[in-house]
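# nightly structure sweep
# worker-07 picked up a monomer target from the shared queue
# config: single-sequence mode, recycle default, output format = structure tokens
# input follows
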Amino acid sequence: MGIRSGVRAVLATVILFAAAVCATAGCAAAPAPARARTAAWVSVPGMSGTGLTLTQAGGRLYASWDTAPPGTGAPREVLARLDPRAGAVVVRNTFSPGLLGAPLFAGGALWVTDSGPLGEFLLRLDPVTLMVTGELRSGPDGGGGASAAYAGGSLWLAGGDELLRVSPATAEPAAVIALRGARASSVGASQDGSVLVVSVQGVSGSSVQWRDPRTGALRAARPAAGAVVIDGVAASGVWVTATGGAPARAERYTAAAAAPDASVPVGEGGLRVAGGRLWVTGGPGGDYCADASSGRRLAGLPGAGPRAARLLAVAGPVLYYGEPGGHGAGARIAAVPVPAGCG
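# output follows
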């Protein structure tokens, strides 16, 4: 896993102000924090609230969303680079119908996976213009969805029964590693690229695998319950959520333990790893940050106002929230300080 000038609030100013407040006065966090009703919302022209995601990569802010061109019923994915200071979408690129992965910055380029009727692809983009500068087809039509991570100086691509090590310079495979018995797979890595993990769903069950971040060689594997999605990697632990079943729980696996050593309930919500913390949203316990090793709750998240906003991204000291705009006006985003209790 965009700003309409009707409000013209300057998002960069909000971000700098939020960081300054946290650094000088601290951001108070109560056990059950009140909703933050003073967040500065910024409307983004042409940015749909459908499927909206927000990602910080390579020091820039990117958004993606679904759009249906006039006269068609097939939604297409849009990727856009935002300029918070100007309050606008600077540049956008529209892709074929399918699913775009969260942008990933590596080797001076922006990388996204594109999974749809035409197959599964890894696309290399210019991070400024968003023009495609390289393309690698990794799976057949109607694939289950590709994922990518950066570790050990290479891009790693998974989605089916193969793990590909891709050169950032050429966007071509440097190695192809068979994931025997896999029907679907996904890949994740720690922020520093020192830990590479792969989830595998196969005919004989699911597993979480630790692999050498330079060669892809298998180091350890642990069985997992049901099909799992990698939520994020913190230090040597990987958090995964089992798909299907209720209530849903995210579990932490390590290479050393034979079974999960921590878990948190997520229900219909979600979980992500950012800045060495867990960020749990939409679950039975509300929105909160937690210790990435134990899952212990640290502080509740303030939200961004009385409306149905959802957390889109965590970038340093800032929480980005988004919500559909009123009267079909697209979407709005807001920046809110991370509570001091989140560390």
